[in-house]
Amino acid sequence: MAIVTRVPLFSSPSSSFNHKCSLLLPDNSPIKLISRSSSAFQRRRGIVGVKAAMTTVIVTGAGGRTGQIVYKKLKERTDQYVARGLVRTEESKEKIGGADDVFVGDIRDADSIVPAIQGVDALVILTSAVPKMKPGFDPTKGGRPEFYFEEGAYPEQVDWIGQKNQIDAAKAAGVKQIVLVGSMGGTNLNNPLNSIGNGNILVWKRRAEQYLADSGIPYTIIRAGGLQDKEGGIRELLVGKDDELLQTETRTIARADVAEVCIQALQFEEAKFKAFDLASKPEGTGEPTKDFKSLFSQISTRF
Q1: Distance (Å, whole) CA 200 – CA 98
Q2: Tell me: the pLDDT tens digits for 228-279?
Q3: Which fold has domain 55-140+155-298?
Q4: Residue 166 contacts by C-beta under 8 Å, 6 or more apart in sequence?
Q5: PANTHER family this protein is in (predicted)?
Q6: CB-based contacts of 11: which residues, under 8 Å, 6+ apart?
Q7: 237: exposed, middle or buried (C-beta count within 10 Å: 0-12, 13-18, 19+)?
Q8: Are 163 and 170 spatial neighbours (Cβ–Cβ below 8 Å)?
Q9: CA 23, chain centre distance (Å)
């Protein structure tokens, strides 16, 4: 029995498969058919290609307060990212869930971080030297606390050598983008942060940033203002250069907002080969930032 097609059995890939089709029998009596569901039919017929490759991102310093947020955000976006973390100790690994995608390694030991970085598309660097308060400080007696860095954990070793090791490992592994979180204040050698523990932390951070900018790898350098443990996504974000924001009343930012900017930087060409200061307006002032492409487009500085 001959069948004459009145309409195509399926439409172009850009149109919906959930539509009705009709066929004509020789006596002109129509037969109504309902096409198979789009996803199932296309998969079985090979019409739909393989799902777009996921972006594998490793967060170093994933046990830190900001690193934990970035790692968690990546884990929640399973349609876009395959998340990895790098921490220094097994205790830190357990603290963030102990998943198999969390590697243990010491950024000061170049060989120990190579396995973690193999096969990743992007690297988010959130490692930093952390000063400790000297014991015996009594806030009731006034004065200021004194700080020190543990032996082997000075900014030169962590923020310079450790970050250089990460950049070198990423370059050798063919990583396509590095997001590095630093700190505002690096244009001023006399910044008080440099005097903490005699560590010159901003000096060494700045040196690592320059090394990244000279590496040839697409990069995004985020120099964050004072970090706050507050809810993110509810403030207007501000970008600047050369510590200009330090001369204003908007010098702080929520860690959650820094984390979001790290991830958004992976999505836009406008964020590549850029270095910028980052802060936010006070909550309730301005409009919460949603258009990150426009935010990155405001930036013209490469270092």
Answers
A1: 34
A2: 999 999 999 999 999 999 999 999 999 999 999 999 999 999 999 999 999 9
A3: Rossmann fold (3.40.50)
A4: 60, 107, 113, 117, 123, 125, 127, 178
A5: NITROGEN METABOLIC REGULATION PROTEIN NMR-RELATED, OS05G0110300 PROTEIN
A6: 17, 19
A7: buried
A8: no
A9: 53
Between CA 24 and CA 31 the distance in angstroms is 7
Rounded CA gap, 298 and 287, in Å?
A: 16
CB neighbour list of residue 293: distance below 8 Å, 6 or more residues apart: 268, 270
pTM given for the model: 0.81
Instruction: Give the pLDDT of residue 52.
Output: 56
Measured in whole angstroms, the distance separating CA 138 from the mean position of its chain's CA atoms is 39
For the segment 62-107, what is each residue's pLDDT rounded down to a tens digit?
A: 999 999 999 999 999 999 999 999 999 999 999 999 999 999 999 9
Q: Among residues 225, 260, 258, 228, which one has the least CA distance to residue 244?
A: 225
Which one, of 243, 239, 257, lies nearest residue 298 by Cα?
239
Q: Mark out the alpha helices in 85-220 (DSSP H runs).
A: 90-95, 110-117, 155, 163-173, 192-195, 201-213
b/e code 285-297 from CB counts within 10 Å (16+ = b) = eeeebeebeebbe
Residue 249's contacts (CB-CB under 8 Å, 6 or more residues apart) are: none
Sequence ranges of the domains in the chain: 55-140+155-298
Tokens of 274: 């850029």
Q: Which 3 state secondary structure label does DSSP give 119?
A: coil
Report yes or no: 199 and 149 within 8 Å, Cβ to Cβ: yes
Q: How far apart are the first and last CA of the chain?
A: 74
Catalytic residue annotation: 183
